[in-house]
Design a protein that fits this description.
413 residues; five-stranded mixed beta sheet; mainly beta; five-stranded antiparallel beta sheet
Amino acid sequence: MQKMAVYLSAIMSCRLVLVSIAALSLVAMATSCTSDLDCQLNGECNTAAGTCSCDKGWTGDDCGTLNLNTTAHVMYGYTPTSNTSCWGGGPPTYDESTGKYGMLVTEMAGHCGMSTWGRMSQSVLAVADSVEGPYTHEKVVVGTESHNTIYAYSEVDKTHLMYTIFEGISPPSCNPYLNCTDGTTTGGKGLHPPSHWPAMHCPNNNNKGGRGVVHWAKSLSGPWTSIGPVRVDWGPNGEPPNSGLSNPAPYIFPNGTVLLLGRGQDAHTLPNGTRIKGHNVWLFRAETWNSTYKWIPLNGLNGSLPVGANSNKGPLTEDPVLYRGRRGFHILFHSSPDLTHAWSLDGFDWKYSPQVMGPPTHASQGGGDNERPRVVLDDNGDIEYVMVSQLVPAAPGADGADASRLAAFRALS
């Protein structure tokens, strides 16, 4: 019996050693890197140790979690002492002609709140003495309806560019309520307009071709000229059923070539009747910002990017922002309630993490998600600020419950 006990003890010890080795192997597999791609291009891979050393603004074993100061810096929009709501914009840029920073922002017209966004969004120029602001309203550059404002610059022809959804050509009758006073809308709640408002009839909003519009100017202050909806070449097989060009997000190379992201439909129905989640994101390429954008089919659903809710898996992805950091290309998406991340060495072959992360939200206080992300980069190509649009609780006694703002969160080392 004593020999048997020793024998069994030896077997158990051996099994424990094997289990321990297996557990260590799993940990090593989970955290080991062989290149910077395994660090989501947000850090450097030490191939000898198999570990990632994260760049500013990122943390985690694979550098896949945003590392931000949790205190919001309000760049523009609603505060308890302001009378304006906005829904994103930027990134900001330094204007040498004025010595100030300028930022193109989506603002709700008539001092109303975010529930009016489908009819009363306008693109405005806001200015500040520092990149983080706060910014003040300078002028309207594109009137209603103009939404999802995002700025880019074409170095090759020294042209300021603004990509939006909708073209800014709505008649005044499309704005049913222009006498708000405090940045909120009487009867408005979140993203939903007051129930007594008339049905939508504005030409921009019912015209799919009006989504994804390019405007240009030689000065930030304008005048701004629209070239109309983005011209798309979908190739010989035509446009896929769940495609689209909402939420356009450009990256412009020094030679003028453009990569552009666009969001598809919220959902679509397959021939067999199955309803598939949408928010698919599509990639386009153009020789210049004012030429035809050619669809680049990728390995996601129907040729979209392999991210988010493809085939009903993963979180929804919308509101992309495309930027180039020190190690490669990146996309931040709104994936409720916060953000997700994709990365690529060349802008065509993309990897994606479904981890939802980012700044604190205000959902528990009656606010909403962090949406419409933008980034400010430092001279090294690392994140300096992450900017997000937020629905926030209105001040006591406010007319409505649809206050919104653009907030920045500083990256931590």
